[in-house]
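Incident log, support desk, overnight shift.

02:14 A customer reports that sequence design results differ from what the structure should imply. Their input is reproduced verbatim below. On-call engineer (initials T.W.) acknowledged and began investigating.
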């Protein structure tokens, strides 16, 4: 029984979503390689420092070659395969992994490795390091269900598993889902009614096209990119001084709204300053490389932190474009993936030529930076031209600490190259003061990913172009996987930050490759890929599940139903502002400071939080001032990224604090009051029509009779309570700075405010159904 239990656990972790039946051939990449990587590579993998017995199990030539009269693996012969003999041995001196290891093989894993050798020990290289292969659309039985080629890949798998797709989502659910996904905001009642009443066959496609053309699209799609780019309004670390990088944030919004192809989006952010006749916008784009934290503590060693900034750029590049844990190779060869320490510092060399001082200024932007024209962002032709960064200038402060002269609010940090490149050395154990001066390293990419002559990559521009070359096996896969993650909650590769050997294999590998090649065939058109995904029948399914399906596929990896995902922290606040009518539609500009306690920063500094007023309180959350050491608590309650380092996949937690925030936070209480005013003014004369109106505005559907009765009781209970305690009603209506409506009865308004708060606390109000 123990063996059966362990066998089940193993297959739940590795094989459940990949094997249609018990008699399928063993897949090396999806079943064998994860075991070898997890249990063997630490001592028998790419890292030469921990390599034992001069044996590597990550390379076929080691696995299948003869060693002193025996073979590690002899295909088809388990008795003559040393690997199988060792993992099955009862002798503690021979057994592998050794008894002291914490990475013991389970009986199920031993059985699988044994069967793999019996079947001929087929060996393939790790899937992510091979160029994506475009396969023909699969043959399926229920052709009528499909809307795009995506659906054939999904349906083929479902039919193989004996499952059927869910029915289509109703039109109210669908218009809400796609509007939230493409703009981050709920649909208005007019938008809902227009879509529901449009009987034309392409009504949904026209809805999608309208949303893609909305300026709200760029704002919404910028948020995950800002998380990946570690964008913030402060430097981080202990001092956490203010910086001015909002022009870069606005460039991202502009680029997404204008449909900039992703290859150009990549090149301009990594090397826009190196393009011929670089424009001001292209220089601003390079702020991506300056979004890292900067240390301004007086006792810091500038040389140490200069190294840390370059390390951050390398690690961020690895996560964002390559989907690899490159940082593991900073101190030693990567223990699992084909990335040597030397490879790491060759990448390091691309970013080691920025004229920067390791110690940041007391406040403001750290060089190199450029001034912004006064007419930004509406530039004339003359203004949109190359601006040379201000000369690098060091000053001695009152504390005798040498710092760079800072740039003020009218500047933005950019990338810039030294006239003479710095020499780059491998740093022993990753330490800034332990360079191996025996070899000067030239810029280069990991040898396993090398697709052109090594000496053809000499600077950041070459690197950026290499990332988006069709021969690069990773970039297109990594990016379309993150697009999929945004719409379905989980990527085709669930570990979107790790496409390496330790990452999770793709649930639909052929679909991932098809999407990657399609992305490149469409000239890296981001909006086209988003349209392709959201117009698929797969995306349009109902998210309702069944007990059987919940047991069979609890994480919806087979996609037999539509996505159901809690909204992001930004979306939750933005939706409250939108339905209440409070939201400002202004795009771009300096970051704003909405409601937070004045002493919120007291734990790290004497500075008081100076809250803004007026329209600034109601800007989209994208524009909220982001202090790295103390991010907005409301956002963090709903799992927002801290923005200290690159993050492309966030966790989700459920906590009582989330409900308490929605019920008591100033922003949400004020939004409930304004929502109540809308209900009383626009919802009709009867209580039933008013409540129905409020429900529909907030969650985009009509309330069910039971829900209507519950909310009517809520209104009655609070009406009685506030009639008995008018002071409590006045106190509730005084929350927030937006002026209250004096023409409405205060008792009725207070009671309806509590109804609005109840609706805005519904699970559906904070969830994409």
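02:41 Re-run completed on a clean worker. Output:
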């Amino acid at each position: 029984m123990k063996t059966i239990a362990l066998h089940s656990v193993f297959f739940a972790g590795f094989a459940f979503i990949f094997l249609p039946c018990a008699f399928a051939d063993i897949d090396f990449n999806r079943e064998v390689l994860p075991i070898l990587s997890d249990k063997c590579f630490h001592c028998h993998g790419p890292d030469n420092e921990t390599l034992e017995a001069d044996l590597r199990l990550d390379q076929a030539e080691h696995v299948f070659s003869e060693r002193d009269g025996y073979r590690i693996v002899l295909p088809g012969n388990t008795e003559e395969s040393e690997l199988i003999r060792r993992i099955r041995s009862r002798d503690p001196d021979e057994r592998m992994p050794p008894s002291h290891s914490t990475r013991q093989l389970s009986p199920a894993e031993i059985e699988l490795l044994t069967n793999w050798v019996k079947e001929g020990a087929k060996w393939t290289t790790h899937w992510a390091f091979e160029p994506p292969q475009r396969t023909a659309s699969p043959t399926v039985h229920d052709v009528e269900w499909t809307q795009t080629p995506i659906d054939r890949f999904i349906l083929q798998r479902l039919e193989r598993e004996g499952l059927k797709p869910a029915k289509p989502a109703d039109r109210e659910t669908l218009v809400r889902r796609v509007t939230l996904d493409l703009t981050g905001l709920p649909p208005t009642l007019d938008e809902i009614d227009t879509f529901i009443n449009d009987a034309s066959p392409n009504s949904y496609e026209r809805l999608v096209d309208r949303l893609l053309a909305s300026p709200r699209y760029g704002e919404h799609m910028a948020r995950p990119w800002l998380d990946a780019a570690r964008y913030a309004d402060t430097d981080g670390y202990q001092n956490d001084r203010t910086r001015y990088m909002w022009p870069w944030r606005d460039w991202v919004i502009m680029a997404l709204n204008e449909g900039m192809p992703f290859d150009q989006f990549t090149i301009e952010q990594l090397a826009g300053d190196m393009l011929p006749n670089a424009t001001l916008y292209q220089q601003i784009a390079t702020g991506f490389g300056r979004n890292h934290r900067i240390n301004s503590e007086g006792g810091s060693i500038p040389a140490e932190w200069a190294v840390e900034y370059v390390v951050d750029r390398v690690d961020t590049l690895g996560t964002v474009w390559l989907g690899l844990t490159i940082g593991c190779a900073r101190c030693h060869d990567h223990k699992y993936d084909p990335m040597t320490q030397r490879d790491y510092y060759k990448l390091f060399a691309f970013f080691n030529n920025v004229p920067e001082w390791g110690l940041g200024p007391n406040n403001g932007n750290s060089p190199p930076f450029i001034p912004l024209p006064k007419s930004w962002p509406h530039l004339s032709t003359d203004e949109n031209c190359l601006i040379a960064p201000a000369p690098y200038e060091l000053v001695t402060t009152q504390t005798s600490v040498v710092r760079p002269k800072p740039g003020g609010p009218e500047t933005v940090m950019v990338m810039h190259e030294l006239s003479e490149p710095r020499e780059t050395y491998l740093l022993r154990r990753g330490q800034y003061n332990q360079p191996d001066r025996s070899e000067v390293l030239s810029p280069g990419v990991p040898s396993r990913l090398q697709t052109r002559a090594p000496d053809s990559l000499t600077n950041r521009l070459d690197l950026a172009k290499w990332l988006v070359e069709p021969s690069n096996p990773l970039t297109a896969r990594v990016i379309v996987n993150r697009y999929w993650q945004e719409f379905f909650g989980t990527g085709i590769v669930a570990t979107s930050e790790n496409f390496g050997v330790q990452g999770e294999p793709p649930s639909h590998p052929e679909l991932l490759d098809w999407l990657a090649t399609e992305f490149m065939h469409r000239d890296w058109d981001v909006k086209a890929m988003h349209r392709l995904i959201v117009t698929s029948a797969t995306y349009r399914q109902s998210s309702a599940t069944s007990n059987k399906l919940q047991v069979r596929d609890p994480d919806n990896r087979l996609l037999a139903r539509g996505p159901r995902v809690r909204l992001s922290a930004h979306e939750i606040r933005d939706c409250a502002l939108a339905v209440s009518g409070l939201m400002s539609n202004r795009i771009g500009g300096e970051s704003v400071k909405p409601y937070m306690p004045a002493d919120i920063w007291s734990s790290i500094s004497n500075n008081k939080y100076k809250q803004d007023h007026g329209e600034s309180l109601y800007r989209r959350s994208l524009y909220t001032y982001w202090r790295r050491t103390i991010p907005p608590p409301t956002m963090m309650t709903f799992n927002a990224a801290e923005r200290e380092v690159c993050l492309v996949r966030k966790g989700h937690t459920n906590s009582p604090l989330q409900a308490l925030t929605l019920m008591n936070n100033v922003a949400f209480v004020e939004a409930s009051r304004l929502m109540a005013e809308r209900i009383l003014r626009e919802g009709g004369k009867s209580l039933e029509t008013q409540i129905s109106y409020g429900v529909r505005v907030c969650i985009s559907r009509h309330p069910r009779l039971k829900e209507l009765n519950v909310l009517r009781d809520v209104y009655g209970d609070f009406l009685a309570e506030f009639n008995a305690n008018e002071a409590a009603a006045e106190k509730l209506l005084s929350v927030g700075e937006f002026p209250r409506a004096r023409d409405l009865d205060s008792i009725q308004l207070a009671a309806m405010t509590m109804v609005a708060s109840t609706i805005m606390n519904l699970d559906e109000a904070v969830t994409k159904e």
